[in-house]
Write a structure and sequence with these properties.
The chain is of the alpha/beta class. The protein is built from 14 helices and 14 strands. The strands form two sheets. The chain has an eight-stranded mixed beta sheet with strand order 3-4-2-1-5-6-7-8, sandwiched between helices. Strands 11-10-9-12-13-14 form a six-stranded parallel beta sheet, with helices on both faces.
């Protein structure tokens, strides 16, 4: 199976394509693999289930490596989600580096880490935003205890960290100290699917269309977006369509009764959108609303811009000063009224100014986010691993 001219990279991740309910991490890894598959020989070790599912993917071989156009994959069923199986797969592949995509995953981070410490395989670890304060505040006690034990035991001592931004680099240093080895490589985004003209032709509808596209969990603050939407003052119809996997049912139950159609302000839960559906969803919306507690990157934000959809987000992301760039609003959630104000300004914006926001968003993605330096930084992520 091995192509001797290429370094062999084993990627361990809880969920991978065709799964999509886990959102950003799947896209991050898939985009790296698609962009760098000519440079490296990639092996992906993952579970046979999408997030929250109990039945494995259909029509895929389980518990065996198979070649998918030069990408080698293995989907493990429940019987092999254990340390012995993970260790055996790592020994079988003999990778030049192991790439991990979570801080707290037992099966696809802790087990590989322990195996790599035993056999000396280099590890690159992407915390995927889990060291941000907003993320650490969720289940705070357990995470604090785990991180303390991991530092005392030196679990992450020899890890090379993959930070998506300078902000995430600082989060890593804050938790693991300045001696931590960190490489910054912004996530590689998906490409633009639609032309700007195609999108703008669908914009003037007489209805202001807000969308939420993310996992439905406490971290994403969907309830704040709903509360703000219901306070809008408008003489024209406004809709708020919600797309995402209900990851936290208890959280969803606290506000699901607020989701209902109205005469002027209509809220509708649309279920989970597949990656193939997303470009049209963004292009046919006016604003993405994501008042998140923390994002180390925010694929939903970037994908909205790629489809000329301005955003209304919190300041708990790498994307700042959006209003002066005509990309939307980034607001301080310490004052809830800031979110209401931004959404109200969006509703009241004249069409010419709105088209300017759409154009700026589309061009920002094209000219800034899809920079060749981003791809080169990701390429170097594994370049010095032996």
């Amino acid at each position: 199976m091995r192509l001797m001219s290429k370094k062999r990279i084993l990627i361990c991740i809880d969920w991978y394509e065709p799964g999509f309910k886990a959102g950003g991490p799947i896209r991050s890894v898939a985009n790296i693999v698609n962009e760098l598959k000519d440079d490296y020989e990639f092996y992906i070790l993952t579970s046979a289930y999408d997030l929250g599912e109990v039945e494995p993917y259909k029509d895929l071989p389980l518990n065996e490596w198979f070649d998918d156009g030069g990408l080698f994959l293995k989907y493990l069923d429940k019987t092999l989600l254990n340390y012995a199986a993970i260790k055996r797969n790592i020994q079988e592949i003999q990778p030049d580096a192991v790439y991990l995509n979570s801080l707290f995953s037992k099966v696809f981070t802790l087990f590989p880490l322990l195996a790599c410490r035993r056999y000396g395989f280099p590890v690159v670890l992407a915390p995927r935003g889990m060291l941000g304060q907003g993320a650490l505040d969720l289940k705070k006690g357990k995470k604090k205890s785990f991180l303390l034990i991991s530092k005392i035991s030196g679990l992450y001592k020899k890890v090379k960290w993959h930070a998506s931004t300078k902000e995430e680099e600082e989060e890593i240093y804050k938790t693991f100290g300045r001696k931590a080895r960190v490489h910054i490589a912004q996530n590689i985004p998906v490409g633009q699917k639609l032309s700007l003209d195609e999108i703008l032709n669908e914009k003037k509808t007489g209805t202001t269309r807000f969308i939420f596209v993310s996992r439905i969990a406490v971290k994403k603050n969907l309830h704040l977006a709903i509360l703000a939407f219901k306070q809008l003052k408008t003489k024209q119809p406004c809709t708020f369509h919600i797309y995402g996997n209900i990851e936290d049912q208890e959280y969803w139950d606290t506000f699901k009764d607020e989701i209902k159609e109205g005469d002027d302000l209509s809220i509708d839960y649309k279920g989970v959108a597949t990656p193939a559906e997303l470009p049209a969803i963004y292009a046919n919306a006016d604003y993405l609303v994501l008042p998140t507690k923390h994002e180390n990157y925010g694929h939903a934000i970037v994908e909205a811009w790629s489809n000329a959809c301005p955003v209304i987000i919190s300041r708990n992301t790498p994307w700042k000063n959006l209003h002066v760039q005509d990309l939307g609003w980034d607001i301080d959630l310490k004052n809830f009224d800031n979110l209401v104000k931004a959404m109200q300004e969006a509703v009241d914006l004249d069409f010419t100014s709105y088209v300017a926001q759409c154009t700026a968003s589309y061009n920002y993605f094209k000219e800034v986010i899809t920079d060749n330096e981003v791809i080169e930084a990701n390429r170097k992520l594994f370049a010095d691993e032996n």
